[in-house]
Amino acid sequence: MKTKLAVVLLFSGSLVYGQQQTKTLTTNAGAPVADNQDSLTTGNDGPVLLQDLHLIDKLQTFDRERIPERVVHARGVGAHGFFVSYGDESQYTKADFLNAKDKQTPVFVRFSTVMNPTGSAETGTRDPRGFAVKFYTQQGNYDIVGINQPVFFIRDAIKFPDFVHAMKPSPVTNRQDQTRQWDFLSLEKESTNMMTYMYLDSGTPLNNRQMDGWGVHAFRWVNAQGKVVYVKYKWTSMQGYLNTNPRTLAAALLKDPQEATDDLYREIGKGNFPSWELSVQIATPEQLAKLDFDPFDDTKIWPESIFPQTKIGKMTLNKMPDNYFQDTEQAAFAPGNLVPGIEPSPDRMLQGRLFSYLDTQRYRIGPNFQQLPINRPISPVNSYNQNGHMDTRETHGDYNYQPNRAQNTMGENPAFDYSPVELGATTVHQPIRIKDEYRQAGELYRSASKADQDDLIANLVHDLSQVTNPDITLEMVSHFYKADKQYGTRVAEGLHIDVQQVVERAAKL
Ligand code: HEM
């Protein structure tokens, strides 16, 4: 007899190893497990038997625990909560969840860093923070998949894979490399505005509760009469703002490299529920047509002096997931999850994103990812789509096609069609008409306080001084110079670059 049997107790009809228990372990197939401590062997000294089905079941399950991490935004933290609308927005949109005052809609939110893998540090990472919100509305899931910055680096989805390749670790060394990153960015003038946002201290938030979020793109809101306006979304933190800066970074990193995750578990655990107000900038098509820049260029903001923020509701996060993998890891946010009354704008990044997320999620999670509890709409899903890995959707007897002669059959409803867009254009491969690469970056620099400008310069000099190719540095500094002469001059001086060289390069840009 083995010595362990000395501590075996009989409890509730089950054998117990050294502890009390109320339930018998089972295999995945529900059969009771006799021994979870020792494999079944051929005698004490012999090999393990293939017929130890519990061992095989356990190892096979373990061997398949990982799914691919998100290709970007791999490290994240999620929370459940609810959104309450402040008023009735039906004059602008027929979106159901915005059509009455005090209407409550459940949400799931995931905050993330972008370029680093799961398990990487969050504190001090100069990276946008993902700010993705899934609204479980009565007419399907609506996702605002935004970030903590109002603009983006590039404006056309065709460049996104190149952008990510340059920002991610080198394919040779598997290390992120400032030279590769700035090589790409310096050749993409449009990134000047975003890089200015990124290198302000707000580019390194300390946690997720104390930061704002933006939808970045413009979206089309359509009311029941078919009238169209365009909107941009902003989430304003009711907790204020907290960033690291060059003086606090080292201590913050030492204290907790994953403070953003820990902070959310800690504060929500204490019942200190964070909230954000959602506001929109609303613009008519006629107002947008008069702007001297492209309103659908995601490297630009819409000035609040022309388009003020209108508050439309408040989101509160009040529960951390019971299981990280099932909720946070398997959550599938997509800009293509739209509801009646909210439609895409022609923003070229948004258009690419409409496709990319729902595509990657079929690969990352599996073809029926929308049936998982975290992704499943609370409104009915009526479709004749079928089968694929892990299908559990409702079926409709013999009818898996449409049209059909079934009683209470399902069919389309033209009332939910996209609003018509008049185009009358010829297909082209061309950049947007008005690029205006530098103006907003200059305005942003000039609007920053002296202290923020000083940190912006220090942050840029810190990273640009690691670039090994001087031509890349010169080109990038020249972009900052084009945005604002003082801005470029200060970065040049910090890097000990001859300002005259910068002036000459800037003249050629
Ligand atoms: C064409 C440009 C873009 C493409 C192709 C793209 C693609 C992707 C992909 C493939 C994922 C992983 C999704 C998943 O596995 O579930 C992702 C995640 C994400 N992206 Fe993008 N992205 C683009 C631009 C942007 C922009 C402009 C923003 C912000 C305005 C953004 C915000 C996010 C966020 C927040 C997540 C994480 C969502 C989550 O928490 O699960 N992306 N993106």
From TrEMBL:
Keyword Cell cycle attached: no
One Pfam family cited in the UniProt record for this chain: Catalase-rel
Residue ranges annotated for the Catalase core domain, each copy included: 26-410
Keyword 4Fe-4S: no
Alphabetical keyword list: Heme, Hydrogen peroxide, Iron, Metal-binding, Oxidoreductase, Peroxidase
Functional description taken from the UniProt entry: Decomposes hydrogen peroxide into water and oxygen; serves to protect cells from the toxic effects of hydrogen peroxide.
Family: Belongs to the catalase family.
Protein name, UniProt field: Catalase
Organism encoding this protein: Edaphobacter modestus
